[in-house]
Amino acid sequence: MMTKLLLRALAGETLPTPPIWMMRQAGRYLPEYRATRAKAGDFLSLCYNPELAAEVTLQPIRRFGFDAAILFADILLVPQALGADLWFVTGEGPRLSTITDAAGVDALKPAETVHETLAPIYETVRILSRELPRDTTLIGFAGAPWTVATYMVAGRGTPDQGPAHAFKDADRAAFTALIQRITEATILYLSAQIDAGAEVVKLFDSWAGSLKGQDFDDFALAPTAQIIAALKERHPEVPIIAFPRQAGERYIEFAKATGADAVALDNSVDADWAAAHVQPGGCVQGNLDPRHMVTGGDDLVREAQHITRTFAKGPHIFNLGHGITPDADPDNVARMIDAVRSV
Ligand SMILES: Cc1c2[nH]c(c1CCC(=O)O)Cc1[nH]c(c(CCC(=O)O)c1C)Cc1[nH]c(c(CCC(=O)O)c1C)Cc1[nH]c(c(C)c1CCC(=O)O)C2
């Protein structure tokens, strides 16, 4: 019998208390994370050190008893494995060598070679599948192709993903080839995470909301559906969570058309609307505003319980609507968990 709460919710079961985990649950708001990171050196050294990456994955599980652990890694390791230069500027974020034309896409390494770079990540997964508590589900992940492409084209995070839109509009065929290369690499990467012990995988499309109309179909919906179909063929038993952040009304269609077992709702989505229009199609995850982890108080308890009650009539995984921020107070995380479990 399936006992892990997260797997039961993903199988479509309505539970008396939803499973809980948090995006970016291993991160700078935790003093123990900052200590391990200092030991590793920089962020990428931490990602590629299986023992230390497993340690930071386990830290929030020990402290809070979440129902799921998410592999500690980053969505930008796939571009690096495809040949992009990648580094992180402290206090600013990621930097990559840029790809702005067809020649740049052609120069990328073949998808089949990504394992050479990503092998340490599979080792982290193997360590975690041995060391996690019996009731904790291990989630693997990757970025969705559009979001990964926005960083590969611009060479950094951008407020409006302007460079990726410009590339797509200037040379749709070359941009499609870039999306396709990332899609193939992502299928191989997630499949290897599953072989190493990941029990669920999640696709982060953080910038899906900047795609409209046909572009949303071609670059958010279709690549996600392609990745899910390929993974389901190889690993039919492994549930998949998709996060088309800020997809708005298109969440409804995204949930139906991609084959995802659950969609993660960002915090711009109204919970009552999603309970009426998205949850009837299957499990939903979300969607407390991460600012409550900074501000705390009665608002935190009220809002966490409102979300829990609103989604109580169907399968639900409690989570934030985006990652917890470095200025969050760990005590507020404990308060959130108590609030959800006492509904
Ligand atoms: C867009 C994106 C990235 N990475 C990720 C996304 C998609 C989700 C989202 O929208 O937030 C996903 C991600 N990044 C990280 C994880 C690990 C698992 C987890 O705890 O959620 C996951 C799932 C670790 C990380 N990834 C990063 C950190 C902070 C690094 C540090 O320790 O300095 C962590 C813990 C760095 C990172 N990585 C990325 C950026 C833009 C940054 C810099 C911004 C920041 O510093 O928060 C790319």
Characteristic terms for this protein:
single chain; about 350 residues; alpha/beta; TIM Barrel; seven-stranded parallel beta sheet; globular; binds coproporphyrinogen III
Structure notes:
The protein has 343 residues and is α/β, with parallel strands linked by helices. The chain has a single domain, classed as TIM Barrel, CATH 3.20.20. Helix content is 51%, strand content 13%. The chain has 16 helices and 9 strands. The strands form 2 sheets. A 7-stranded parallel beta sheet has the order 1-4-5-6-7-8-9. A two-stranded antiparallel sheet has the order 2-3. The radius of gyration is 19 Å and the shape is globular. The model has no long low-confidence stretch (mean pLDDT 97). It binds coproporphyrinogen III (CP3). The site of coproporphyrinogen III has 20 residues, from strand 3. It is an enzyme of class 4 (lyase). Its EC number is 4.1.1.37. It is found in: Cytoplasm. It comes from Paracoccus tegillarcae.
